[in-house]
Model the fold of this input.
Amino acid sequence: MKKMLNGQLVEMTAEEITAKADDEAKSAAETAEAVAQQDAEAAILATNKANAKAKLIAGEALTEAEADTVLI
Amino acid sequence: MSGIISDNLGRGSGLVKAASAGGMAVISTANITGSAVSEIAFDALFDDTLYRAYKIIGNLKPTGSAYMCIRFNVSGSAVSSDSYTGTQTVTATQHNASGAISYHWGGSSAKYPSPASTPYNNKIGLGTGSYNFGNPIVKQHSREYMNLDFTIFPDTTGTGNTFDSTVMGNLTYGHYGVTGDGNSCHYGTATISHSGKFWGRQLSRGVVTGITLYPDAGNWDVGSNIILYGVKR
Done:
């Protein structure tokens, strides 16, 4: 594996290769965490929206989170 | 204009008028040909007696979906410990199949010095990340080049906080939607713009000697090309 230093190709050391693998693993974990968090937030929003619709039809009181989903 | 003609600092030969004060001189060029490389680094090229600032301009393409990371070098090696802080503004525009804008998104994020329980970033990241730096669904698509325009003001004098380096710049990404995400979109249908100010602060790591750019996964692909310029004093 090579890197480019000041325009010249340089062979990476074993330590640098190991460090790159560690960095990539950490980045993959961070990405998975971020995506999972976003998915969870989207799921909560969808649930609140569905609940808000059902309660509006039934004439029931909405929670604040549910009301937020129907306000423009 | 004087009559002196001398070699441009970025050229090995030829008679070229040297950049005058305020002009930009090519310091180093990185052209990726033949096979991909894991990172691109410029080191031991900063010279505060010659340059007031530095610019990195060019195009980078990852071998797979990835976002760009930056680290500063000290004593020739990229600092990988938790040392980096910064703020960033991100805007995104997504288009539907007919070309109309279907989605706008904008926001800012920051990672400030904080208690030891919340460490600094170990890199300047311009994509996903556990701390900040943008929309977590964004990565650079491997079929697209990201366009770089960075201005760097490294403190290489060794005075004060020697790791108090600053990078400012703008970066445009092609939008890559993570599978299953509600805001996912097909390649080429959206753009992301990043702009921000990034710096190392409080944690002195030594005199900055260079900068390293690398993708969070994979390599920089063949065709990537960036140039380090110095803004002459």
Remarks:
- The longest strand of chain B covers residues 84-95.
- Chain B has one domain: 40-232.
